[in-house]
Amino acid sequence: MFSFYSKLSTEVYNIDKPIGHSFGDVEFYKERLNAVKGRILEPAAGTGRILIPLLEEGFIVDGIDSSPQMLDLCRFHCEQRGLRADLYEKNMQAFSLPHKYEAIIIPTGSFLLLENLTEAINGLKCFYEHLAIGGRLIVDIFIQSNFNTGPISTRTWSTPEGDLITLNESLVEVNFIDQYTVSHLRYEKWRSNQLIQTELERFPLRWYGVEEFRLILEKVGFVDITISSDYRFGIYPTDKNQIITFEAYRK
């Protein structure tokens, strides 16, 4: 049976992308949110890689995630630092929270995990309804360019306890009509040359064209949309390998 961001993948994420680790996004989001005084929501908050640096800057940030393992680790990291955040186990395509937010942020392509277009649009509608009037959505996407099914890539990590975690990843499905891919990820934990834990994960990713995504945001109701690339505000993308950021407002 497939898992999704369960115990081993959460452990790997915490090692590979520790709190504050930046692809340029941590600094970019701090700058774009600089004038925000109200609440911020991060769907797919994960272990708190970006949420916690924002808390440390004095922002009020809530988080949602569908993975209880990710949320448990995020809470642990917050407690270690004497920080507090309201964290909810929710799916980002359908949730209800008691607050309206001045900003909702989804860095580093996490929104693309919604492979089904209807669910993705429902998620955007949910974000829209949870924004205060004049509130902002800031969301990153990227364009996939690897469509070679079959080859297996392998990565390894050493844990602080001295165990070894391996990840074998293989692209198994490319749907050009519905614009998504599916990879199978197999995590294994080894101790003294003995396999002690394993997880198999189904990992979907959707893709959008730049102007396609702008039109979807407009259809949901967002206005004043700015498109940026590689965390340079207002610089329109010119290369398929760039991170593309959309900033849009609720009218």
Automatic annotation (TrEMBL):
Alphabetized SUPFAM superfamilies for the sequence: S-adenosyl-L-methionine-dependent methyltransferases
Ranges of residues in domain Methyltransferase: 40-135
Protein name: Methyltransferase domain-containing protein
Organism classification: unclassified sequences, metagenomes, ecological metagenomes
